[in-house]
Amino acid sequence: MKHLLTGTLLACACASAATAQDITLGRFFGACEDAGNDTKASVGEACIIQSIINAADAEIEGVSIETLPTDWGNYYDQIKAAYAGGTPPDVHVMHRHRVPEFAGFGALAALTEDDLSGAGIDPADWTDSARDAVTYNGEIYGIPMDLHANLWHVNMDLMAEAGLVENGEPVLPSSPEELLEHARQLKEATGQNYLAADFAQFPIGVRLVLALMWQQGENIFSEDGTATIDNDAAQAAVETITQLFAEDLSNPQLNYADSQQSFLNGEAAVLVNGTWVVDFYTAEAAKEETGLDNYYAADFPTLFGEGATWADSHIWVIPSPVKQDAEKYSAALKVLAFINEHNVDWARTGHMAVRNSVLESDEYAALPHRTEYAGTAEIARDTPPAENYGAIQDVLNRELQAIWLTDKPVGDALADANIEVQDLLDR
Amino acid sequence: MPKAKSPLRRLNETQSAYLLLLPFLLTYGLFLIYPFFRGVWISLHDWNLLQVAFNPDAKKFVGFENYVRVMWGRNIEWSPWARPVLQALGLLGIAAAVTLNRTRRLTGATGIALGLAGVALFLIAGVYAGEEGRWFDRRFWPTVGNTVLFVALTVPGVTISALLIAAALNRETRAMGLLRTLFFLSQVLSVTVVTLIWQIMFSPRQGLIANITELSGGSPITWLTDERFAMAAIVIATIWWSLGIAMILFLAGLQDISKDLFEAGALDNCTGIRAFWYITLPNLKRTITLVIILQIILHFQVFGQSHLMTQGGPNDETQVLVRYIYQTAFRDSELGRASAMAVFLFVIMGAFSIVQFLVGREEKD
């Protein structure tokens, strides 16, 4: 009897070792129903990432991946609630700017060089900025997937009509005054708006103002935690944009979907948005029915002293509790390695790759519009690390919206933003 | 031979009552009473959601500091004319309660409730941050104000439209039955679907409303990002959504009114609008009170409409209390502070529940 029992137990143990290790995966980027396994054919962030995940699920032996349903807008709230409830996903995506918050509390597993090389990930291949993105207090807490930044998406036909094309490239402004001039010129020639962006909901307007502050060598707060929003640089940055609203050369009331639609309809010459839409706009421009036919993806222009554009990185991490289960941890690392391996596929979205070997490859150089915004990696910037980045960004978004949507005086809004950001930094 | 009594038969009435109540009491205690007291307890701590999850000792008892930091400020003063309009409205409420009670047009509890509401408005609206002073949390009271405004617009909107629709549909024909179902249908949708429908409706590019305005020659309104229309937009969506239950309650109330009353009224030439005013409305008084109070309690908890349609914007114009609690707890991880706000919300809703209890009891007498 005893032998029989041990035998059964052993059989069970073998069987469970043979079955696949289940990995739950949390991500944003939106839903894609039929992504398939082909990582070279999918279009758009949602479908490209899902095709990579599906391929990982199919190709990594002994690992099966379940993508959890999460919603873009509430992603971090859901993830935090999952951590607080003790059930975080086994691997999940996040932004570089959230690392201090999560790693600061010990929520993320530190990945040693041995772990990484054991799984076939070579950190030496990562660009310096990518390595910085996943490093916190000297430890590596994840693998970087991209560098993404704000671009100027350009409708070349409208620009040509306004005489703003030279040698097949758009002529972009080099000062706030020139911006206003170009915008007037374009309105005159085409009757359309010069610039569109989501100034009303999603913080694209915040990122625009941030870039214009960095271009003047200023920031919204210093490393030592002092808010520095109420100054001439911020005033100049904001007024660079409000001068367009004042003359009806841009509409502050469009949200993300509406501003994008106005660009695709040919009702705006420039759309300020991230690298994540380059492949989508390329595909849209190829369609007969869209108003956008001739699409160009340009670096964010330098309107003040130095070049700068808002940037961030998507990174993949493993929660620290997963490390307690060696088999699960190793399976999770395999998933990260697979994503790292497919860096060039993810770059098809329009994002910049993070591996030097990919950046130097012909396949990468051949991606559409890639050379047009080759300067963006150089000028990519972000705010200093802060644990309550989300709340700080929200304050700026609210006060900037107050300026362009409710006519709050710029000085009052910047003073209020300064007080509130300082409150958050002091908490 | 006498049969042996089953164990259940041996219980007396009270014991079996408790036994039958037990499953309910357990669930109620576990999912409502316990979380409530735990919430109060958390509100007395400096409690970071993520930090405490990884280190249970990371919380710190701070007493009422969260309440102070949320609701109070530096150099807070009171004056009888800080917000003259609101405070005058409060005084008016007190005066109305006193006179109506004297002339016996308002009964005890209702009079007291109106009077207390007036006193509360007069006192609360008089508080302001003095010179050099400031609120510690500059968003909390404006957020409460937005929530009250939302309730003040939505509740009459739902009540009046549901009442009119119910009165119009209170007939026993097949078409009316179909229309009743149609009007009720919106109620079964989840908030995500409702907000999605209305975001499309309100969209200045593809929305139905924008198309109609353009047809009639106007330029489309950007409902959700215009400070003048954002609150109206979420109120309209909410009225459309929550019409159903109120309508069903009114229909039930209408069918309770004896046909004899209308027949007697018709003999005295009281029909149509007059019958509605002199017979229907007075007989529906209890239902109307019930609908209003239920709606008040329900709509103070508004979250999805603001969160999904406007993200609280533009410039916090549609930021509501539950969304602020949610953001504080989950985005900012400040669970203690969020719990303090939640306790505040509980007090408001508790006050309305007490009013409902008092009014309900009075009408039975």
What do these coordinates show?
The complex is a heterodimer of chains A (427) and B (365). With 427 residues, chain A is of the alpha/beta class. Chain A has two domains: 22-147 and 313-341, Periplasmic binding protein-like II (D-Maltodextrin-Binding Protein, domain 2), CATH 3.40.190.10; 149-311 and 374-426, Periplasmic binding protein-like II (D-Maltodextrin-Binding Protein, domain 2). Chain A contains 19 helices and 15 strands. Chain A has helices spanning 2-18, 45-59, 75-84, 99-104, 113-118, 128-134, 156-161, 176-190, 204-214, 232-246, 256-264, 278-286, 326-341, 343-347, 356-359, 362-365, 376-379, 389-406, 410-426; strands at 21-26, 63-67, 91-95, 135-136, 139-140, 143-144, 148-155, 165-166, 169-170, 193-196, 268-274, 295-298, 309-312, 314-317, 380-381. In chain A, strands 7, 10, 11, 12, 13 and 15 form a six-stranded mixed β-sheet that branches. In chain A, strands 2-1-3-14-6 form a five-stranded mixed β-sheet. In chain A, strands 4-5 form a two-stranded antiparallel sheet. In chain A, strand 4 (135-136) and strand 5 (139-140) form a beta hairpin. In chain A, helix 8 runs parallel beside helix 10, helix 9 (204-214) packs across helix 10 (232-246) and helix 18 (389-406) runs antiparallel to helix 19 (410-426). The radius of gyration of chain A is 23 Å and the shape is globular. Chain A starts with a helix and ends with a helix. With 365 residues, chain B is mainly α. Chain B contains 16 helices and four strands. In chain B, the strands form two sheets. In chain B, strands 1-2 form a two-stranded antiparallel ribbon. In chain B, helix 5 packs antiparallel against helix 16 and helix 10 runs antiparallel to helix 13 (285-299). The relative contact order of chain B is 0.11. The mean pLDDT of chain B is 89.
